[in-house]
Amino acid sequence: xxxxxxxxxxxxxxxxxxxxxxxxxxxxxxxxxxxxxxxxxxxxxxxxxxxxxxxxxxxxxxxxxxxxxxxxxxxxxxxxxxxxxxxxxxxxxxxxxxxxxxxxxxxxxxxxxxxxxxxxxxxxxxxxxxxxxxxxxxxxxxxxxxxxxxxxxxxxxxxxxxxxxxxxxxxxxxxxxxxxxxxxxxxxxxxxxxxxxxxxxxxxxxxxxxxxxxxxxxxxxxxxxxxxxxxxxxxxxxxxxxxxxxxxxxxxxxxxxxxxxxxxxxxxxxxxxxxxxxxxx
Length: 281
Ligand SMILES: [Zn+2]
Hints:
Helices cover 28% and strands 23% of the residues.
């Protein structure tokens, strides 16, 4: 499932193709992909808008749209499990998984491809209608602000990192990787962390996300592809995620996989010690 680095990669891949282009039409072939407004209204409203910026918020792509009459709209897209974009010439046949397509003024077409159909789009006047409740961006906040996030939160670290209202953009892969770098057990209670451990976690999250963005994210299976089919190479850098039964790169202990909050969770039982967990809680 695409997380912050994969969405950031999609945004960066798409930007040079889309900035300044006008959407001359849209085709919705699977209506439920469009969450707001209705599919019919979506097609009618988006026509004629120019894409003036493309940004990311959490795991959402945010297309900034302007029309000649100067009003603004925002198209937000969440890729969920298998969503992704490609750009083709309009005359090239679409495959059956291309559920929403946008015709551009240069003869190309932006195509949203989503085999599992969990991806969603919103066309809104204010992006906060969709992303207003998200926590801060992990690459934008200071260490001081990160410390402050813990003042009102309790519970196990892994589910907390996945909670988008706590911090935005982290999913299963980068939560496990960050906890390994920070040497923290996924079940540690957030309220039990020392100042130093919180700082370690802050630095670990930033290191992992920045490293993943630098190589285009992680392609674990065939489902996640960058724009027009490229793969993200962070899979070669994974330390615990998908590494069960392999030796820890720091201490040689075999990486374990367990389930935390219904999510597969990978950790090193030595570096991310349970003993330490028990002595504190
Ligand atoms: Zn280890």
